[in-house]
Amino acid sequence: MWVRCALSGAQAGSQAGSQLQPGLLATWRRHSGAASYSASAQPSRVRALIYRSHGDPAKVVELKNLELAARGGSDVHVRMLAAPINPSDINMIQGNYGLLPKLPAVGGNEGVGQVVAVGSSVTGLKPGDWVIPANAGLGTWRTEAVFSETALIHVPRDIPLQSAATLGVNPCTAYRMLADFEQLQPGDSVIQNASNSGVGQAVIQIAAALGLRTINVVRDRPDIQKLMDRLKDLGAEHVLTEEELRKPEAKNLFKNMPQPRLALNCVGGKSSTELLRHLAPGGTMVTYGGMAKQPVIASASLLIFKDLRLRGFWLSQWKKDHSPDEFKGLILTLCDLIRQGQLAAPACSEVPLQDYQRALGASMEPFVSAKQILTM
């Protein structure tokens, strides 16, 4: 079952609770203003999804009990509420990601937790606050942990729980790619593949909020019309399959809209070639993923005669190149869009932590648009 997490203005807090499935509704009530929260409560047994070697997530990830680390003066005791399974999490476990934590490691790079207690020198957080990881590799697939204050970012509690849990990776990637590579103006168009991915759904919504028009490419599938309708509900102007984009009729799209100056590629292979073919002269294609596990294919004629630019984007590198305050500013900008009803969490399916094998399996199946959210 999918959970859609929309939000509208000042009613965000009450709507957040009403939009969750029963399991997450109880979690939201327990960890929000809907119910009191005792920071002095005895911590429950810590359970975590750990991998001791790289490989198939279904084989190397185990649910284990951990001891809670002692809390120092600059540390924060956090009880995790929800954490998604992203492609980067799977790649990290497989050992083919650009950032690999020291083994054994707790899985998960993203999620939201609530502060239980803080050390004596912590000034920016207090019990009850919601926090998300400042960087990848924190290990969010666990019930609770003690983290350094600098490893966390405070986020407002007036946004839906799933929006907070999925805030720090996909929407940030979408926003930066739309903002950093081309000087786009309202009315300009953007083309992307993997449009039903978490990043793709965020691109559609953020682009619409910025007045940009989107051409969204997806793989054909049995429920293609249902998917197309759902993406259009998010604000997509055009949704078409990769096969349709290859047809000569695809050029008719640009009779009533400008050719895109920005293409966002998460697939590679022939799909990336088609994006390049439809870019305006002087345009830029940004690659941020390689789902097809095939190289980006750019013909010499496209590069020479259209002067196209090929760029790459990795959020972790962007964070290294920018200050923590700039990342916090980005998070707050996205929170504003959420409050205004312009950015909802991706379609998601909640799975209790103990059913992690089911969640891992679903996250690696083809044509699954629902993001798996581990609930603690």
UniProtKB/TrEMBL annotation:
<dbReference type="GO" id="GO:0006633">
    <property type="term" value="P:fatty acid biosynthetic process"/>
</dbReference>
<dbReference type="Pfam" id="PF00107">
    <property type="entry name" value="ADH_zinc_N"/>
</dbReference>
<dbReference type="InterPro" id="IPR036291">
    <property type="entry name" value="NAD(P)-bd_dom_sf"/>
</dbReference>
<dbReference type="InterPro" id="IPR011032">
    <property type="entry name" value="GroES-like_sf"/>
</dbReference>
<keyword id="KW-0560">Oxidoreductase</keyword>
<dbReference type="InterPro" id="IPR013149">
    <property type="entry name" value="ADH-like_C"/>
</dbReference>
<feature type="domain" description="Enoyl reductase (ER)">
    <location>
        <begin position="63"/>
        <end position="374"/>
    </location>
</feature>
<dbReference type="GO" id="GO:0006879">
    <property type="term" value="P:intracellular iron ion homeostasis"/>
</dbReference>
<dbReference type="Pfam" id="PF08240">
    <property type="entry name" value="ADH_N"/>
</dbReference>
<keyword id="KW-0443">Lipid metabolism</keyword>
<dbReference type="GO" id="GO:0046513">
    <property type="term" value="P:ceramide biosynthetic process"/>
</dbReference>
<protein>
    <recommendedName>
        <fullName>Enoyl-[acyl-carrier-protein] reductase, mitochondrial</fullName>
        <ecNumber>1.3.1.104</ecNumber>
    </recommendedName>
</protein>
<dbReference type="GO" id="GO:0016020">
    <property type="term" value="C:membrane"/>
</dbReference>
<keyword id="KW-0521">NADP</keyword>
<keyword id="KW-0809">Transit peptide</keyword>
<keyword id="KW-0496">Mitochondrion</keyword>
<dbReference type="InterPro" id="IPR020843">
    <property type="entry name" value="ER"/>
</dbReference>
<keyword id="KW-0444">Lipid biosynthesis</keyword>
<keyword id="KW-0275">Fatty acid biosynthesis</keyword>
<dbReference type="InterPro" id="IPR051034">
    <property type="entry name" value="Mito_Enoyl-ACP_Reductase"/>
</dbReference>
<dbReference type="GO" id="GO:0141148">
    <property type="term" value="F:enoyl-[acyl-carrier-protein] reductase (NADPH) activity"/>
</dbReference>
<dbReference type="GO" id="GO:0005739">
    <property type="term" value="C:mitochondrion"/>
</dbReference>
<keyword id="KW-0276">Fatty acid metabolism</keyword>
<comment type="function">
    <text>Catalyzes the NADPH-dependent reduction of trans-2-enoyl thioesters in mitochondrial fatty acid synthesis (fatty acid synthesis type II). Fatty acid chain elongation in mitochondria uses acyl carrier protein (ACP) as an acyl group carrier, but the enzyme accepts both ACP and CoA thioesters as substrates in vitro. Displays a preference for medium-chain over short- and long-chain substrates. May provide the octanoyl chain used for lipoic acid biosynthesis, regulating protein lipoylation and mitochondrial respiratory activity particularly in Purkinje cells.</text>
</comment>
<dbReference type="InterPro" id="IPR013154">
    <property type="entry name" value="ADH-like_N"/>
</dbReference>
<comment type="similarity">
    <text>Belongs to the zinc-containing alcohol dehydrogenase family. Quinone oxidoreductase subfamily.</text>
</comment>
